[in-house]
Amino acid sequence: MIDWNLITSVPAVLALALVARGFIPFSSRAGSEELRLFSLGMLWMIATFMLRTAYWGVVRSTVLAIDPDLWRGWSEIVDGPDHVNALFNIGFMVGGFYILRGFYVMIPAEERHNWSVISAPFYPGGWCVRRLTRLLSQKWRQR
Q: How far is residue 94 CA from its own chain's centroid?
C-alpha cells in the first residue's frame, strides 16, 4: 500500500528546510530590528514545522514500515504523542514571541507605551472588542 504521508512529507521537509535556510541571514544580520525579529520568528516556526513533519511523516512512516513494534516501543518511552507535540509547541511559542516582538518594535516609539507585545498585532486600530464597544457607546449617546 502507498504511504501518502511519507511520500508527501519528504518534499515538504525539503521545501521547509530551504525556506528556513533563506531566513537565516535575515535573522542574524538584518538591517532593522523588526526584520530581524520577524525573520527569527519565522525561522523558529518553519524549523519547528519542518521537524514536526519529519518526525510524524518521515520517521514515523519509515519506522512503521520497518517494524511497527519498534514504533510502539518508542511511543511507550516518550509516553505517547503528547510529550513530543509539547516540544514542537514550545518551538511554535518561541517563534510566535519573536514575531509579536517584531510587531511591537514596529509601533512608533512615542506610542509604544500604550501597547504590549500581546496587543501589538492590533496596532493602530486596537482590539476589535474595544472598537465595537466604542462604536456601540457612540450610538448609545446619540439616542
A: 8
Please return the burial class of 5, using the count of CB atoms within 10 Å of its CB with bins 0-12, 13-18 and 19+: middle
Q: What is the DSSP string of 44-105?
A: HHHHHHHHHHIIIIIIHHHHHHH-HHHHHHHHHHTTSHHHHHHHHHHHHHHHHHHHHHHHHH
Compute how many other C-beta atoms are within 10 angstroms of the C-beta atom of residue 4. 10
Measured distance CA(125)–CA(76) in Å, rounded: 49
C-alpha cell at 108: 512608533
pLDDT confidence band for 129 (50 / 70 / 90)? low
pTM over 0.90: no
Return the top range by mean pLDDT from 30-34, 117-121, 133-137.
Answer: 117-121
The helix (run of H) or strand (run of E) holding residue 30 is none
CB contact burial 80-116 (16+ within 10 A = b; e otherwise): eeeebeeebeebeeebeebbbbbbbbbbeeeeeeebe
Residues 6+ apart with CB under 8 A from 81: 75
